[in-house]
Known about the structure:
Strand order of the largest sheet: 1-4-3-2
Number of domains: 2
CATH class of the largest domain: Alpha Beta
CATH architecture of the largest domain: Roll
Order of helices and strands: EHEEEHEHEEE
Amino acid sequence: MATQIFVNLPVKDLNKSIEFFTSLGYSFNPQFTNEQGASLVISDTIFFMLLTEPFFQSFIKKGIADATQVAETINCISLDSREAVDEMVRKAVAAGATVPNEKQDYGWMYGHGFQDLDGHLWEFAYMDMSAVPQQM
């Protein structure tokens, strides 16, 4: 079995979060989705568990960060082209996301992102590996 990653994120309104990510073209695994959480499928090995805040809180003894006020992480996902990066951000904004930063273009690497409905930061990047500088 390949190594998989399951990133857990607290959300205020699970149904709105499901609608938001569905509008970006993602799907959810119904086997791991119920009224407390939803398994957002990014790829065969990458999943985000969107958990209602009370359910998320049941796993931790700390408070939950308010992602609209502080950055707890930046979730970066690679895409196949610059156009795909721009399209993902366009769809996210149309679905209610905000754009906290300008596009980043380093020639060989291009990225842009958004802040989702709960304030979580998402970046999408395209990298032309044949053009990566020899030394960074």
